[in-house]
Write a structure and sequence with these properties.
Elements (H helix, E strand, L loop, with lengths): L3 E8 L6 E11 L2 E6 L16 E7 L2 E11 L5 E11 L5
C-alpha cells in the first residue's frame, strides 16, 4: 500500500488501555484505508473486527476521529476502513 504514514490511537477492547501505533494509509475524502502489514504477526487490528470501533488519526497536522472496521479477505489480507467524523476531534478527544 502506498500512501502516507500516520499514527492510529485506539482503546483496547479487553484491556481498556489506550494504544498508538504507526500505520500507512490512503485517504479519499472522509474515508481512510489502512492495509495491515503482516496481520498474522500483529494483534492490534483485531480491536476493529465485527462492528469495529472508534479510533483517532493524526491527519494533516490535526487529530481526526472516526470509526474503523477490519475486514479479512480470502488470502488473509487485512484492511481497516475508517469513516472519519465530519468535525476534527476536540482537544483531548
Amino acid at each position: 500500500m502506498s500512501g502516507r504514514l500516520t499514527v492510529v490511537t485506539y482503546t483496547g477492547r479487553r484491556s481498556g488501555r489506550t494504544f498508538s501505533t504507526p500505520v500507512a494509509y490512503q485517504r479519499a475524502a472522509d474515508v481512510v484505508t489502512i492495509a495491515v502489514a503482516m496481520p498474522e504477526r500483529k494483534l492490534w487490528w483485531r480491536n476493529f473486527t465485527g462492528e469495529g470501533g472508534p479510533l483517532a488519526l493524526d491527519l494533516d497536522g490535526s487529530e481526526r476521529v472516526g470509526h474503523g472496521v477490519a475486514r479479512v479477505d480470502g488470502k488473509g489480507r487485512v484492511t481497516i476502513t475508517v469513516r472519519l467524523d465530519e468535525r476534527p476531534a476536540p482537544n483531548g478527544r
